[in-house]
Amino acid sequence: MKYFITDTHPLIWYSIGSKKLPFKVRRIFDQAMAGELGLWVPIMSILEAFLLEKKGKIRLTKSLHGFVSDLFAQPVTLLELLPQDILVAYTLNFSKDLFDNLIVAMAQRVECPLLTGDSIIHKEKPCHVYWD
Fold it and tell me: Which of 4, 67, 99, 129 gives a 20 to 30 Å CA spacing to 121?
């Protein structure tokens, strides 16, 4: 089965039905929800969503508890953070964003494309990306 890993913003955009998500990425999420392909959700994305909502930078359509419950009622796989991810993230120099570095390190570990629209990740290409 083919797998993808998601960055935080596509996960949030998909969950709220945002038009910002490119059609082909929305299709990946739809296929994952239908069990046609695999989707890794990094634990860091859940933490980042929590922090963004807590700071008032995003507003989820449901409570964070509802967001997480709905997410894990779907056929997606939570990707845990391992010590090796932290060590790899420490060596990455493409971004000062801790979450980006950790998610990229996790994408490198599972060796699958990262769903992200992050321009820095696209420019620096620290991992294989999938967007538009």
Answer: 67
Q: Domain tally for the chain?
A: 1
Output the CA–CA distances (angstroms, integers) from residue 94 to 34, 59, 72, 81, in the order listed: 34, 28, 31, 20
The CATH number assigned to the domain holding 51 equals 3.40.50.1010
Q: Mark 92-104 as b/e (b = at least 16 C-beta within 10 Å).
A: bebbeeebbbbbb
The helix (run of H) or strand (run of E) holding residue 29 is helix 23-33
Domain with 20 in it: 3-130
Enter the pTM of the model: 0.90
Residues 70, 8, 131, 28, Cα dihedral to 10°? -20
